[in-house]
Amino acid sequence: MVGPMNESVPDKTLDQFIKLSEILTGCELDVEQGRAHLVRLLSTPLVPPIQEVLKRFERLPRHSLAEVERKMVSDAALRSTLCQIVLLWYTSALRDTVSDPLVLRFGSEQTYFGGLVWHILGAHPPGLSGGYFGHWRYRPDNEPNGTPM
Amino acid sequence: MTQDFDIVVVGSGVAGAITAYRLAQAGARVVILEAGSRNPPRAQMVGAYATAAIKNPHSPYVNAEADKMAPTSDSSPDYYDQPPPPHTQYKSNYERRTGGSTWHWLGHTPRMLRSDFKMKSLYGGGRDFPADMVDWPIDYDDLEPWYCEAERELGVAGDHAQWNNLFNSPRSQPFPMSMIWPSYSDQWIAARLDGKKFEKIEYRVRSTPSARNSQLYDGRPPCAGNSICVPICPIGAKYDGSVHVGKATAAGALLWERCVVNGLTAGKDGSVHAVQFITWGGEQRTVTARLVVLAAHAIETPKLLLMSKLANKSGAVGRYLMDHLSKSTFGLAPENLYPFRGPPSTSGIESFRDGDFRRKQAGFRLSLNNDGWLRKNAPYAEIIDLVMKQKKIGAALQAGLIDRVPRQLRLSCSVEVAPDFNNRVELSTTRDALGIPHPKITFTPPDYSYRGLSRANRVMADMFQRIQATEIDLGTDDKAFDGAGHIMGTCRMGADPKQSVVDEELRCHDHKNLFIVGSSVFPTVGSPNPTLTVAALALRAAKTIAGQLGRRSARARS
User: Fold this and answer.
1) What is the per-residue pLDDT across B285-315, written as a single tens digit (0 to 9) for each?
2) CB A89 within 8 A of CB A27
3) Closest Cα to residue A108, out of B384, B232, B235, B48?
4) Of B435, B462, B480, which residue sits at a domain end?
5) Within B12-110, where are the H helices?
6) Could you say which residues from 84 to 103 on chain A have a Cβ atom under 8 Å away from some Cβ of chain B?
7) Where in the sequence is the domain holding B514, given as residue range(s)?
8) Does some domain include residue A138?
9) Strand B30-33 vs strand B2-10: parallel, antiparallel, or unpaired?
């Protein structure tokens, strides 16, 4: 469920954003973190804008992975913004799509250190291990799922 | 206004800070002049790194005023005045701030080898041996006790058994701390490489000695493997020069920050007593002392001597600029190695550092790294690729990442650069905000070093093949290299005043009360990271300086 009302982010919009984000990332997500990410996306000139992507999502008959894959990810016009949503949750970064080579604009230090990709990889964000001396000698406690060894 | 001290130390990096500490401990009145300023709290700098778009060695230290008043190539891409590409670029950077460039060093502290001090005697004479390669005026045995002392001062973790007598370079004492543990990746590679040979040279993976705590040491915590030694240790487990700045000031030394030295003046007797500096506020001031120690790294130190027209009867000031040629290569291991955990590098291969081959080509170190393909934008590039090109989302996206990123491996080399008379630092006509010339740099690695780099490429290719890696990326240009951040040479040490700037005690041949500490005095460099040798030489010089100061005090009193 969505948290308290926020003037800049209507609950319904946030709710749609969280649902879409959970399908894209494959993770259960924090709503308040989602609010911060959505505010950032709303203030970023994306092509297409995040509002348009959320409208497309809202119009889907079912909010399922298969439906998002078929109706949204397969649409090249939407994919860039969908990728930005993933990148944001996974790393806190927004990609500067104009520049080459890859330039990333990271969010706050809290969101940088809270990037989901590191946990998915059995790693930690560079700069914050949360571990003890020598933990790198062993396989990670949060070993990536399904990894053949 | 002029103030008088026993010692003025110019620069507060590891060399200057250790020298100042030892001299202040001995009772000398010491002032350290630092061009930069002290850092904000460490947590604030880690935050700056976290939010920086470009996470380079300078990213925690960006400060508009400091970057303007004490610029370097770290903060200002055009700081080095050098011919543009395709001319070879000098790529190593440094920091001008309290504590110096050790803020963003990796922390590795291998010693030089016995042979590194006697290259000309051991390997010289052939047509492929560089003409400017020389012997040091001291040997390994002279420096060995000081290496032990430096390891205690910096706090070095290492494995005595692995390193004792490496290439006939014995250790008289154990490391002060047990080794930084090898990563899972290191152990996996060692299990597949140790004992195998490349051109009759045997691979052996060793834990790299590092000035990172493996236990509580000197009031600093053990390493937690936060993975960003470069550009900043978030918890201070890695040594940096600010440790000895703190010890020096606690022992009574004064630290004057934001004071950019722009001149030294010699008296009629050739001794140097006056040091001129500009404050960031633009005030020109002078401080006087009985002895002066230059510790401004291998770019700013020769710059200062050239600006002052001192210490250069040999014509060697600024000459023989060196570095190590660094190159990263990439491969995908057949199993998970779990990168992005632990220090960026915990083990290496020393087997190629020495041998009869050094008559014709440079030696090198190899590092096994724990940072995956971060230098190729992992895991960001993989996420983008999986979504944008492969249209993966959800569990499929995660599976795609898990399938590749934990298997990513980076190997790297650090190749000896031979001294060359023509590789140099001069004064540019371009000036900084305080009117001080930028350094003009000329640098082309000798063929001797390129041959070593070529062999290092072949060795890394062999290593990847032996571990059955795929997607091996050795780069397309066999001569391409990165800077190692190991700026060396420019004020070489030697016995002959006609060919060197300082004597074996690091005293300028031309000015008996002017000393130079730091990597600028290296006549040759071998292939190890230079900081431990810098520290050992500084400790050794501090004893000489204290002795010289004592004799002068005695003469003054009599």
Assistant:
1) 999 999 999 999 999 999 999 999 999 999 9
2) yes
3) B48
4) B480
5) 14-25, 42-51, 64-69
6) 86-87, 90-91, 93, 95-96, 101-103
7) 1-48+55-154+239-323+421-443+488-558
8) no
9) parallel
Cα–Cα separations (whole angstroms), residue B478 to B355, B395, B454, B473: 22, 40, 6, 12
How is B278-316 classified by DSSP, letter by letter?
EETT--EEEEEEEEEEE-SHHHHHHHHHHHHT-S-TTS-
Three-state secondary-structure class, residue B471:
strand
Hey, are the CB atoms on A145 and B402 less than 8 Å from each other? yes
Minimal Cβ distance to B50: which of A79, A127, A133:
A127
Alpha helices for A1-149 (secondary structure H): 11-25, 31-42, 50-58, 65-68, 76-91, 109-113, 116-120
| DSSP assignment string, B224-249 | ---S-TTT--SSS-B--THHHHHHHH
As a whole number of angstroms, the longest Cα–Cα distance in chain B is 86
Q: Are B57 and B485 in contact (CB under 8 A)?
A: yes
State which residue of chain A sits closest to B337, comparing Cα positions.
Answer: A139
Say if residue B329 is in the same domain as residue B251.
no
Assigned domain for A44 exists? yes
Question: Residue B553's pLDDT is what?
Answer: 60
Q: What is the CATH number for B116?
A: 3.50.50.60
Kindly give the parts of chain A with pLDDT less than 50: 1-5, 146-149
> How far, in Å, CA of B274 to CA of B497, rounded?
23
Whether residue A85 lies inside any domain: the answer is yes
Six-digit token string for B521: 């005095």
> Are B409 and B517 part of one and the same domain?
no
Judging contacts by C-beta atoms under 8 Å, the chain B residues touching residue A65 are 393-394
How much is the average pLDDT of B485-500? Answer: 98
In a domain, A139, yes or no: no
* Number of compact structural domains in chain B: 2
What is the extent of the structural domain holding A47? 11-116
- pLDDT category of residue B256 using cuts at 50, 70 and 90: very high
Query: Is there a single domain that holds both residue B476 and residue B363?
Result: yes
Q: How many CA atoms lie within 13 A of B502 on its CB side?
A: 30
Asked if B331 and B461 touch (Cβ cutoff 8 Å), the reply is: no
Task: Answer yes or no: are the C-beta atoms of B491 and B459 closer than 8 Å.
Answer: no
pTM equals: 0.96
Q: pLDDT digit string (tens) for B539-549? A: 999 999 999 99
Rounded to the nearest integer, the mean pLDDT of chain B is 96
Q: What angle do CA B8, B12, B15 make, to 5 degrees?
A: 90
Sign of the torsion formed by the C-alpha atoms of B175, B367, B15 and B39: negative
Distance CA A32, CA A55 (A): 21
Q: Has residue B219 been placed in a domain?
A: no
- Write the CA distances from B154 to A50, B17, B179, B238, B517, integer angstroms: 52, 12, 14, 9, 16
Residues B385 and B502 in one domain: no
| CB contact A65 to B (< 8 Å) | yes
A61-70, Cβ contacts within 8 angstroms, sequence gap of 24 or more: A63/A19, A63/A20, A63/A23, A64/A23, A65/A23, A65/B393, A65/B394, A68/A20, A68/A23, A68/A24, A68/B393, A69/B391, A69/B393
- State the total domains in chain A: 1
Domain boundary among B460, B480, B500: B480
Contact A87 B383 (CB under 8 A): yes
Q: Is B355 left (phi over 0), alpha (psi -120 to 50) or beta?
A: left
Same domain, B476 and B496: no
| Residue in B with minimal Cα distance to A65 | B394
Q: Are B462 and B198 in contact (CB under 8 A)?
A: yes
Angle at the Cα of B240 (from B237 to B243), degrees rounded to 5? 90
Indicate if B465 and B374 belong to the same structural domain.
yes
